[in-house]
Fold:
Amino acid sequence: MARELESMPHNPDKVRDLVRERYAEVATRQTGCCGGGGQSAGRLAESIGYSDEEIASAPEGANLGLGCGNPTALAALQPGETVLDLGSGAGFDALIAAPRVGPTGRVIGVDMTPEMLERARIHAVEAGYAGTVEFREGTIEALPVAPGTVDVIISNCVINLSPDKATVFQEAFRVLKPGGRLAVSDIVLSEPLPDELKQMAAGYVACLSGALVEDEYIGAMTAAGFEQIRWTRTPASMLFDSSTLDPEALAIAAAVGKETLDRLAATVWSYKLEAVKP
Structure:
């Protein structure tokens, strides 16, 4: 069986190892991973809500075309705030957040992939934000951040990759200040995935088989303590555009067949979610 179609491991640590390995490849080869790999990163960013100014402001290579929304716009960031980016990758969203919080603010990116962290740190220096933006190695299930120190948490198409999403939201709640805000873009389902896709490693890394249905996702946020949960959604067309499918998505399409893929496309959504820690 092709490498892209290997079975999903059941051990959470092995799931993280799989994701870390694939995103290391993205960092070093600049390939796609969560849709959009066949189109330019700039075109994808524009299609999911980034302005031309935001795209142009980031150093070359910071935008890897991995997102499914623009959480920095959703977060309504203010000068002086401390922002935490879960799964910060090559630093695109963190660097867009930096001028919004200004010289008195702070942006912290957390990522578990050393190759991504290396790129992000270089980009922060190139963009002139080394004094206000930092990138820390760690998982989003065990954030290397002190309790009650963050004003806003952002994340872009990353939480769906976690094998323990309940803990992710508990950790997010822990590090936020009272009144702190959560603003994330993510892939969420309206129906459970077909069993054959749930077991594909390729589907997991392509942001599919790790995704939860809406009730489970919102339920995890509520159970962690979040209130004032609001969301909007649009079809996750970036994952199913036949002209722009990346290698992971092509492997899925070939394995499950067109009929199943068409049915699947109607159940996969790009969500914009907001919530508050009381």
Remarks:
- The mean pLDDT is 84.
